[in-house]
Design goal:
Blueprint: E1 2-7, H1 13-19, E2 24-28, H2 40-45, E3 46-55, E4 61-71, E5 74-85, E6 88-89, E7 92-97, E8 105-107, H3 112-119, E9 132-134, H4 141-157
Antiparallel strand pairs: 1-7, 2-3, 2-9, 3-4, 4-5, 5-6, 5-7, 5-8
């Protein structure tokens, strides 16, 4: 596992907040994510993206985008996080490459391809059963681990200012 620091995205905080408000999660298709966060090539590999938005007592807001990308016969999570202070993105976001946390890679279900052709997004076992909800209801270990790894790394490199 390694952390891949990405350039500060030229993205408006309020645009992201419309996709996923603070304290909630959303499961979205890759085309819902504004350009500039992921390369078009990476977005094209994604099956779905779990967006989690959480705030801290200091006023910092964290957005995690966990791409579920098809990789041969597996689905791999590829989490990215960016933080905002006063609606301004911090200098860098971070992407976890080849994470080693449990549940990051799952085998492709047998009926995955047929289901996708017929209807779109497949209900993955490492994803919430609903397309939206409160972070409190998420309760999926691999998603929580990805979020905690990313937030901890950002907090070390870009400490939050005390208010």
């Amino acid at each position: 596992m390694w952390y891949d620091w990405q350039p500060k995205p030229q993205i408006d905080y309020h645009t992201l907040e419309e996709i996923c408000p603070v304290g909630e999660y959303r499961v979205v298709s890759p085309d819902r994510i504004p350009s500039g966060i992921f390369s078009p090539a990476l977005s094209a590999k994604a099956h779905s993206i779990l967006v989690v938005c959480s705030g801290t007592s200091s006023g910092r807001i964290y957005f995690m985008f966990n791409l579920n990308r098809v990789d041969y016969n597996n689905i791999d999570q590829m989490p990215y996080c960016i933080a905002f202070e006063n609606a301004e993105a911090i200098p860098s976001g971070v992407l976890i490459q080849h994470g080693d946390y449990q549940g990051r890679t799952t085998s492709l279900p047998k009926d995955f391809c047929d289901y996708i052709v017929a209807s779109g997004i497949y209900p993955l076992k490492e994803m919430p059963p609903n397309d939206s909800g409160s972070i409190i209801d998420l309760e999926i270990g691999s998603q929580e681990q990805a979020y905690e790894l990313l937030v901890t790394k950002i907090q070390v490199v870009f400490p939050e200012e005390e208010t």
